[in-house]
């Protein structure tokens, strides 16, 4: 986090993580700053890359589908092999999150698919057709107890 991040920036980031749809006037009031300050600060946070994007989070309970956490181990872990698999994984719309991890598997993926048929099609494209994929271990969510994408900001 940049050293220039002060209490106002932290308040704005915390408020935006809770609800990025607030109008600038409401955001400024909640952060106890002027609307011009809020707008200028948020623009600076976006330009600095601290705010990657502002999105709507769709309720999976209303849409339906399957959520899975998948561990993937490759046969060869050279930089080019890791990059090749990662490139294919992030290109898949069903892959919501992709992490290279250590120790253990090489990747952990978080997937969201419409149904088991869609999962099997993804398995064929991403895992089965890749001769370098040694092992895949999938865990299907049966209940979501918590989903919180906000990052707790460290104190100044």
How does this model look, in words?
Helix content is 40%, strand content 19%. By secondary structure, the protein is α+β, with helices and mostly antiparallel strands. The chain has a four-stranded antiparallel β-sheet with strand order 2-3-1-4, with helices on one face. The longest helix is centred in the N-terminal third of the chain and has 13 residues, at 35-47. The protein is elongated, with a radius of gyration of 20 Å. The termini are close together.
Summarize this, please?
The chain has helices spanning about 5-20, 25-30, 35-45, 60-65, 80-90, 115-130; strands at about 65-75, 95-100, 105-115, 135-140. With about 160 residues, it is α+β, with helices and mostly antiparallel strands.
Count of discrete domains: 2
Helicity level, as a percent range? 40-55%
* CATH first level of the largest domain: Alpha Beta
Structural class: alpha+beta
Biggest β-sheet description: 4 strands, antiparallel
Q: Radius of gyration, Cα only, in angstroms?
A: 20 Å
CATH H-level superfamily of the largest domain? Lrp/AsnC effector binding domain/regulation of amino acid metabolism (RAM) domain
Estimate the strand proportion.
15-25%
Order of helices and strands: HHHHEHEEHE
What is the overall silhouette?
Answer: elongated
């Amino acid at each position: 986090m940049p050293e220039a991040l002060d209490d106002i920036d932290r308040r704005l980031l915390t408020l935006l993580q809770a609800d990025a749809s607030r109008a600038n006037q409401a955001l400024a009031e909640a952060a106890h700053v002027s609307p011009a300050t809020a707008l200028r600060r948020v623009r600076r946070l976006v330009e600095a890359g601290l705010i990657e994007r502002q999105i709507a989070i769709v309720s999976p309970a209303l849409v339906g589908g399957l959520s899975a956490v998948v561990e993937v181990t490759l046969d060869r872990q050279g930089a080019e092999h890791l990059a090749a698999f990662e490139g294919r994984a992030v290109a898949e719309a069903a892959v919501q999150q992709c992490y290279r991890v250590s120790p253990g598997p090489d990747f952990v993926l978080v997937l969201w698919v419409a149904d088991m048929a869609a999962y099997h099609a993804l398995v064929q494209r991403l895992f089965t057709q890749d001769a370098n994929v040694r092992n895949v271990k999938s865990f299907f969510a049966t209940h979501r107890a918590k989903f919180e994408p906000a990052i707790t900001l460290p104190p100044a």
